[in-house]
């Protein structure tokens, strides 16, 4: 009973935290994403954060206000649908990490695909497992009095796929550190004025590191047989919510940096994620003038020349 109550408390807290973060960033979301008509960015943002919120709310609604008759099998299917929706943001993670790997590797398509495939390998088996599982019912309906029986091959696929999420995170983290290594000395100087590359380095390293640590914790707990399903469910739910907030904040930060681009209206919507920017006026100030820092070339050149793809 305690585990069940703790799991439900975690779900309610997760919804509250996501809604609170949405309120805090709503003005930036509207001005930087919705109002600018960036289809790719809007879809990615929807999948990563809004689908996560909707699925949690739907899950709670189904459990609390779902059918109370003896048709437990129908109720089991109702509960499965929100669980499937909870997995959809994983594919948003994969797209974002693949995009960042692509940008940080000087637009190397193979590195981008590697990051995407490693991350999507983590998401796909989880989704397939939910569809391939069968419900095992208890003798006392209603309220979803059942559990899912997962086929052994699917369980093995999930266990193999979990380390792949770490590979994707570490790929982006290492690329971020390598591409911004020249900015490390300036980070120690402090002060309110920092360069664009420094700003992206700090955000990138902190955000991706947080995602990596959460995946490590989830991986370790998945190997602990002493944990029951509800306890592991709490850990994975906390991981999913924090990663959702971290990635959505990072996307907004990247959009903020790109918001003042002169060619913004004609720019490729994907350019935010690949950081292909020219000079602009924004609240992200620079230690140097445009000519001093980028030799007049702007953000559209290689990172080695202009620190543009941070």
From TrEMBL:
Residues 14-49 form the DUF6533 domain. The chain crosses the membrane at residues 44-64, 84-102, 109-137, 157-178, 199-220, 232-252. This is DUF6533 domain-containing protein. The keyword Membrane applies. It comes from Dichomitus squalens. InterPro entries: DUF6533. The keyword Disulfide bond does not apply. Coiled coil: none annotated. Keywords: Membrane, Transmembrane, Transmembrane helix.
